[in-house]
Amino acid sequence: MILITAMKHIDDIDKRIVAALEKDASMSSRELAAALDICAPTVRRRVNRLIRDDIIRIQAVQINRARTSLTVSILLKVENSAISRTADLLTKQEEVGFLALAAGYYNMIMVCWFITVEAYSKFLNTVLYTMNGVLETDTAICTEYRKYAFVNLSRSHGVVQKTGKPVDETDLKIITALEKNAHQSNTRLAKSLNISSATIRRRINNLLSSNVIHIQAFPNVRLGKMITSVIALKVDNGALNRIADYFCDMDEVRQVLLAAGNYDIGVWAWFESIEAFSEFLNNRINSLEGVEKKTIIIMTEIRKWVHMW
Predict the structure, then answer these.
(1) Which of helix, strand or coil describes residue 105?
(2) Averaged pLDDT for residues 81-110
(3) Mean pLDDT of 141-153
(4) Contact predicate 94/247, CB 8 Å
């Protein structure tokens, strides 16, 4: 995948394994071996080496955080002299799961998660709005995920997210543990959480099948170079589903979410080159009917990411 193209000490087999694990790291070594036509012991040995050498981490991601928390994307325009200081202060906040410096009208972008609306309001009033040097902010609350990484949720149009059994305190404990390390046995996880292995197995299967979490391999963010962009779109009434599905079907697009705010759709996309990014803009964005307004941001430096080393 894009993040590991600069690696010189891994071979094509390693790259194939990482690419498969990025899509679904919940596969067993036997399943992965069958999919890649490689013997299971080789797959097992290489995966363990990739983890040991800190090339990948296998973690769970909440692809429907709206089930467990409030997801908020905030674009910031900050005075040039205050960028580093503001970024340092915000990365220390537990609510901030992602923060990057950017090129464009806005020079900083962050994603925050809050358990309650009150916690979100407190963050705005006691943290963000008290910072010197912040000139302008544009906030959008995520209302629905349509795509997360390689998991395409667009066909359900949020049915899974709005229905189904809500997660409880036990589920949240399991999710928190898997977000730190999903490459551990059910027995080990059960022991650390003081929950039976059978309960762990059943609940993980439920979380996976209901699209609450997805287990994925994350290549070390320092290993390669890529262009990461965020495209925020305001679209015509009636065009929301068509445009969201349009982006969900693109391999370059890692996340598609619907939002409440100045923008209706947020798109996160990764590209191997500036030429690929330019082609994406010219042939897929600029010619798209139904878009009233768009803001395009290129990230220049990632300061915080929940999956960062």
Answers:
(1) coil
(2) 95
(3) 83
(4) no
Listed by start position, the domains of the chain span 2-59
Q: Which residues pair with 151 in a beta bridge?
A: 148
At residue 291, what is the residue type? Answer: V
Contact 270, 227 (CB under 8 A): yes
Which residues in 26-64 are b (16+ Cβ under 10 Å) and which e?
bbebeebbeeeebeeeebeebbeebeeeebbbbbbbbbb
d(CA 156, CA 211): 11
Q: Report the C-alpha gap between 215 and 302 in whole angstroms.
A: 22
- Tokens 């590991």 correspond to 4
**pLDDT digit string (tens) for 163-209?**
446 788 999 899 989 988 998 889 999 999 999 999 999 999 999 88
pLDDT tens, 108-120? 999 999 988 999 9
CATH second-level architecture of 2-59?
Answer: Orthogonal Bundle (1.10)
